[in-house]
Amino acid sequence: MPSVDPTTMKALWIQRYGTPADVLHLGDVPVPTPRAEHVRIRVHACAFNPADWAVCQGFLPLPPPRGIGFDVAGTVEAIGEGVTDVKLGDPVFGVPDYLGYPTSGAAEFAVLKVWFAVPDGLDLEHAACLPMAVETATRSIDLLGLSKGQTIMINGGGTMTGFAAVQIALLRGAHVIASAGETFADRLRALGAKVTPYGAGMVERVRELAQGAPDFALHTARVEGVLPDLIRIVDGDPCRVMSFSDFDKEGLGVRTTGREKGAVHRYDVLGDYARLAASGRFAIPIARTFTWDDWREALELSMTGRAHGKLILIPGWR
Length: 318
Fold this sequence. Notes:
Elements: E1 8-14, H1 20-23, E2 25-30, E3 39-48, H2 50-56, E4 66-67, E5 71-79, E6 91-96, E7 109-117, H3 124-127, H4 130-144, E8 151-155, H5 160-171, E9 175-179, H6 182-191, E10 194-196, H7 202-210, E11 216-219, H8 227-233, E12 241-243, E13 255-256, H9 270-278, E14 286-290, H10 295-304, E15 310-313
Parallel strand pairs: 8-9, 8-11, 9-10, 11-12, 12-13, 14-15
Antiparallel strand pairs: 1-2, 1-4, 3-5, 3-7, 3-15, 5-6, 6-7
């Protein structure tokens, strides 16, 4: 059974930056107290993302200690001043205040800066899959300016943000061509996308499927070196290519999701996609779940780039 009003909790965190396997550890840390306009949840599920391992390497502009875990779901356990839209015990999902507190979502308790109700019909594990994939995909598509009837090529339809982007584009009435391996190819086709394999000849295959040049290309795969091909796919205009996994170190002119001036996080859409997920019209697949005992397996699997779905930590409590 959970402790009554615990003062410490288990959490994954780092005390110095470095290689994730070397610096990330499970420890007992103070339970965070929610400040005004925040809530604290008892974490039922936390989705791991490649960004978590980037945090271990110094991605955030703050000194350690730092926690990991950008996507969580659980039940409201404490409410900060000024919060009026939830009550204790409500199931919610959202984004921890990873900049304002030394721990984040991979913990027994987490303080959220953004939260939405978990609708009936959606379990907490699948709710925890939504925030980063949906927000990043939505922001990327909005920055490109994709409209109904246009065509977008999504490179990496089998990544979770790519899988989300395919569904979001289709729901907006766009035509989608996705590159993907065998694991997700059939699922993407069932959604309504045209699918092509990666590798040699992809430019020609995509342009054949599009019957010309797609209006836009979105790069989601954690693979470098493909931006020139994506530029060729859209008739040589780098401004029609958006990437959030390759920051265009070669200066090709490709746009990058995290560096666009004036861009804001699209957390506002999370509730809408949670309702779509609850009704079976949107999904982010789960590959495996983990506990405190095997969290290192999740790290190792994620680092290979072959997780084939979200990896979910189920913390449990002492």
